[in-house]
Amino acid sequence: VADGDCMAGRCQENVCVECVGDADCMSGDVCLGSVCGPASCLDSLEPNNTEETAVPIVTGMSYEGVYICNDKDYYSFSMPAGQAFSVELSFIDELGDIDASVKQDGSTVASGVTTTDNETLFVPARLSGGDFILYVRRLTGGNAELGPDQTYGMFIDTNPEPGQCLNGEDCAEN
To answer: Is 122 left (phi over 0), alpha (psi -120 to 50) or beta?
Structure first.
């Protein structure tokens, strides 16, 4: 693939991308990985805008000041079989609502879609272990449109409080 073969953008390592350097972006934007974005979104976890580019994260480690930069964020992590866990996102809802979901093998196993500060998603121990994808997005006006930049914190707790339920089901099974 060469630059002339890409409908929009540039060629990098035989793949069509939006940019390979800041000069490929509109005035005021910078090249973040291979995607143009505002300079305020210099997030060390970018690019992570698709499941294929999901950034591996460490469970039990706190991530603070992560930007949701007018895009969607994807993260990947693994969990052993029989391990319950929760995903905790912290943010200020007045600045915009952030929702999240956890997928395994393409199926959603947990989601957080409240309209308050913070989201907590719980995945019970009875689900099989393996690889998971965390999907985070910012909402505006109560719909799925992407909003402007916002920071959030993220933590995957491998020792969640007992009695948490998966999407409101009976907690006695967990």
So the answer is: beta
Tell the residue number behind the tokens 């915009």, with chain if given. 96
The per-residue pLDDT for range 29-71, each reduced to its tens digit, is: 777 666 676 666 666 787 788 899 999 999 988 888 787 766 7
Q: Cα 127–133–137 angle (5° rounding)?
A: 125
Residue 152, classed as helix, strand or coil, is strand
Cβ(143)–Cβ(64) below 8 Å? no
> Which residues neighbour 113 within 8 Å (Cβ) at sequence distance 6 or greater?
99, 119
Query: How far apart, in whole angstroms, are the C-alpha atoms of residue 90 and residue 140?
Result: 17
Report the run of H or E that residue 104 belongs to, with start and end: strand 97-104
